[in-house]
Amino acid sequence: MAIPYIDRQIFLALVPYLPSVIIVLLIEHIAIAKSFGTINNYVIDPNQELIAVATGSFSRTAIKSKAGVRTPFAGISQASLPAVIIHAVCDLIVGPRTLKQFWQISPVEFLIFWIGVIVTIFSNIENGIYVSMLASCTLLLSRIAKAQGQFLGRIKIHQIQLISDNNIYSTNDNIDIPFNHSDGTNPMINPILPGNGIFIYRMYESFLFPNATNYMEKMISQIFRETKAGKTIPYNNLGEQPWNLKTSRHPEKEQHPNDNRPRLHAIILDFTGVSYIDITTIKILI
Asked: What does each C-alpha distance from 43 to 35, 91, 135, 269 come to in angstroms?
């Protein structure tokens, strides 16, 4: 047997369509497997499903699941087969109730869903896939880049009631909660700084290159607003003053005598919500 001949023109004509075909195969295969796994109460391994791409038929799987069979079967007449396929596939179409849940859970992803549908209808499947994936990746990167951090204040716990024995115990423990009560704590409780000039800053996402600047800018700007300078450097002439420094040559004269803000003593970074740190952010911290 000779080596098969590959026509270069045919290969070049097929290359532009390969990415979308591969994406459709992978997404469709895994999504369908998970869907029927949920319906029939079994768990799949997505990695194994990638290896077994194209070994199963979507329509046959839907028919067997709808009919409740447990073993392969054949011999269905051609006249009844289309009716069974249509009836089985209709149950897999997203209904209004599911779309409402999409809107309630994530309006942005609901919008991306409809953008993909509209582009697919008025253009083609490839463009619909590319637009949906690009929008989803943009949304993911945007959420990472705009990750929020919160300053924590300290509150004292006076009593603890255990539900198991309905007893109330006194304690001297302190806990740290966000000042804006974003974690659902009682808004009537007013936390205080853990110490004079001491700040605790909690990050709620991984500390990565896309969100490092956002984290640091918000933290530093807040600390600058709530603390006063520990040391001022006077400038003898305009040539010594940095061009981007928006102060006079004698900043020590601009300090208000009644400024009660504390001087910065320590910054404590709470990394309980951080699962990964990259090299760039380590350099920023150093």
From this structure: 10, 21, 29, 40
> pTM for the whole thing?
0.61
Write the pLDDT tens digit of every residue in 167-198. Answer: 656 666 777 888 887 777 777 888 888 888 88
Q: For residue 75, what pLDDT band results from cuts at 50, 70 and 90?
A: low
Whether the predicted pLDDT of 67 surpasses 90:
no
